[in-house]
Amino acid sequence: MLELSKVSSGYGKTEILHSVDLEISKPAVYVVLGPNGVGKTTLFRTVAGVLRPFSGEVRLGGNDLYADNKLRHEIGYLSHLHALPEEMTVAGALGFYGKIEEGKAQEAMDRIGLRDIAMKKVGDLSQGQKKRASIAKLFLRERKLYLLDEPTSSLDPVVAKEVRDLLLELSKERFVLYSSHNLYEAQEIGEYIVLIKEGAVAFFGRKDELRSKGYHVGIRASADLGGVIANGRKEKEYFVVMVTGPQEVGEIVKRVVEAGISVYEVKEMGNPLEDLFTGGLS
Predict the structure, then answer these.
(1) What is the pLDDT of residues 133-188, one digit of tens each?
(2) CA atoms within 13 A on the CB side of 169
(3) What is the mean pLDDT of residues 95-100?
(4) Number of Cβ atoms within 10 Å of the Cβ of 208
(5) Which sign, positive or negative, has the C-alpha torsion 169, 173, 178, 184?
(6) Among 143, 148, 181, 237, which is least packed, fewest CB within 10 Å?
(7) Is residue 5 pLDDT above 60, yes or no?
(8) How confident is the model at residue 282 (pLDDT cuts 50, 70, 90)?
(9) What DSSP assignment string belongs to 214-281?
């Protein structure tokens, strides 16, 4: 279990995270969403044991992360920067980090598909290749918790999917926190969503819980619906309104028909995750 209790964190005298509470108790992929600059990386650095919080506690397995340095060995952290020596080959660098366990370097390279660049120097790799090598480093040993800060940025679509598939398999027994501002990725891989806004947790829950918070439907009708439906807006040929489920949609359509207006089409507009990300859900 990972637990953050009233955690405030930042750099120098600047506070980026403000009294964050978060409790993660089930092995799964938790996608940490939010625009750039809202505190995702600060959160990851704090949970990884790299950035001591100003206040509050970070607990792993019930123990204070910053009171027991051994706990940090249970965490695998991939930052948005690669962390392998530029002058070493990929195989050499991974062998150096994985030398305590026989065969782990080769196994890690096989999992991420690095055989083709194993003998290249890290400094000669493309950004995508460096990212793949850094991900392989993350899997040199088993961890309880994996933190991946935008792991698929700069990867081609095929490799990105392979990484997501690997993390989904890993999440059956491990905790995986995965930061992104890519809504498609969040929908593909995330069982749980953690939305960070202005340094605080704005939403935390299962992805399928978002729908219960509301979603938008568009109604195309024979007349303007502004006088029939409150709190809606005109969007091209549709009148868009927030609803909480099919029953409410049916009630709205009934009201429109009873007002003598023909309904031509009703369709869902956007998706709940996009609405949450852009601030459309309350």
Answers:
(1) 888 888 888 889 999 998 888 778 887 888 888 889 889 999 999 998 777 788 78
(2) 8
(3) 66
(4) 10
(5) positive
(6) 237
(7) yes
(8) very low
(9) -EEEEEEESS--TTTSTTEEEETTEEEEEESSHHHHHHHHHHHHHTT--EEEEEEES-HHHHHHHT--
Instruction: Quickly tell me which residue has 């502004």 as its tokens.
Output: 226
Both tokens of 190, joined, read 């995330």
Cα–Cα dist 260/2, whole Å? 56
Q: At what angle do helices 90-97 and 127-138 cross, to 10 degrees?
A: 20
One-letter amino acid identity for 62?
Answer: G
pLDDT reported for residue 271: 66
Tally the C-alpha atoms within 13 A of residue 248's C-alpha that lie toward its C-beta.
Answer: 12
pTM above 0.90, yes or no: no
Supply the mean pLDDT for the chain: 87
> In whole angstroms, what is the distance from residue 86 CA to residue 155 CA?
19
DSSP for 141-185, written as a single string: S--SEEEEESTTTT--HHHHHHHHHHHHHHTTTSEEEEEES-HHH
CA distance linking residue 68 with residue 72, whole number of Å: 8
- Establish how many alpha carbons lie within 13 A of residue 181's alpha carbon, considering only the half-sphere containing its beta carbon: 12
